[in-house]
Specification:
The structure is a single chain. By secondary structure, the chain is an all-beta fold. Helix content is 0%, strand content 50%. It has no helices and 11 strands.
């Protein structure tokens, strides 16, 4: 069954770190770019980061540059998002999604999505 499953979300305090994972099954992850998106209550979904199929290209939203790092392990069919120096404004449901080979800004370009994992940053 083709699916993406996010995990690793939770409640942390400002300044702490968290790593969320996106596990793929039912397809060859190595053929796909994976994007991370997030949606906070009352806000539109926004792109956070993306990694190309080979891992050679990564990009980040300005709001997370220098704090978040995306990586992938195709042998484990998993993509990771390491989040450091977390802020309350990072609170959101985080989703991963796939797209053939290269990243795209537009979320409509992604054809499969996970169910999301909640990240809450609060003291």
């Amino acid at each position: 069954q083709l699916q993406l499953v996010e995990s690793g979300g939770g409640l942390v305090q400002p300044g702490e770190s968290l790593r969320v994972s996106c596990a793929a099954s039912g397809f060859t992850l190595a053929n796909y770019a994976i994007g991370w998106f997030r949606q906070a209550p009352g806000k539109e979904r926004e792109g956070v980061s993306c990694i190309s199929a080979t891992g050679g290209i990564t990009n980040y939203a300005d709001s997370v540059k220098g704090r978040f790092t995306i990586s992938r392990d195709n042998a484990k069919n998993t993509v990771y998002l390491e989040m450091n120096s977390l802020r309350p404004e990072d609170t959101a449901v985080y989703y991963c999604a796939r797209r053939r080979v290269l990243c795209a800004r537009d979320s409509e370009a992604y054809d499969r999505w996970g169910q999301g994992t909640q990240v809450t940053v609060s003291s």
